[in-house]
Amino acid sequence: MTIQMLAIDLGKQSFHLHAIDDDGVVISRKVCRSKLDLAVAELAPVVVAMEACASAHHWGRRFTADGRKVLLINPRFVKAFVRGSKNDAVDAEAIYEAASRPTMRFVPLKSAEQQDLQSLHRVRERLVVQRTSLINHARGLLAEYGIVLAKGPWRFRDRAPAAIAEAGLSPLAGELFAELLSQLEDVDIRLARLDARLIMLCRENDACRRLSELPGVGPVIATALVAAVDDGRHFRSGRELAAWIGLVPRQYTTGGKPRLGGIGRRANHYLRRQLIHGARAVASRLARRDDRRSEWLKGVVARAGFNKALVALANKTARIAWVLLARQESYRAA
After folding, report:
1. Which domain holds residue 170?
2. Are 20 and 100 found together in one domain?
């Protein structure tokens, strides 16, 4: 029995395998987590196909180490091949059908180093959300005592202790706000520690150092790009990378009539948000210059408005970043 391709529907403890051998016999079986390696070794497929979901990169690295080719597919592309009611066996069959298509696009397998970088960004993002939640919570409670502070986390951090001390609050209220400020300080310390680690990793990585030379790209964006796309060679062009990040308009074209909308929901939201924030920081400086890049940005602002110009500038940054990664070049300012 020879099996060219094996499709696996991943789960936490239960996995479903689907394959068709050279004689046309369909193999469909369910295995537990502890027996997955043994089942794959017994079937000995040349190719293993999976959805690019939770734990897919971990299993992909394990199967690659055994000498097998791993294909990861975006779950959105697999959905079209699901026939009938959804269950694990049907999902595994759909993965097999999707991976068999010659025009299917696959997700590149992440290395352990990329996974480390991405995990660092996920932890940092959680702390940023937690900090925002704490500040908003404290703002809402302070407003009940007539204390309203200016917007911005740095302003809140600087002015809140003095405002609370001068407000003449009761001992209980003072104790509660002191606890909230203590939590905020703890989150700030953790964020500063992660930011310092990102800066160190950025300095140690050659690709990150080259990306950091781009205007609007710092250690956070540089390491996030390397964690997400590595050297970028699985994208055929910078346009494809920008489209994958989500820096292009939605398209609905039929009958030869193109219709473009705003940027869509299908995107790498973290990267898109960081690149647009970086573009926002650069735009204020470019507005005071008269070089070619600045004149281009001023023209986009005049035609489409400031917000669309930010997306256009982020798009340009992503496309230049692809060149720096794929061709291993350094940034040359015009």
Report:
1. 112-204
2. yes
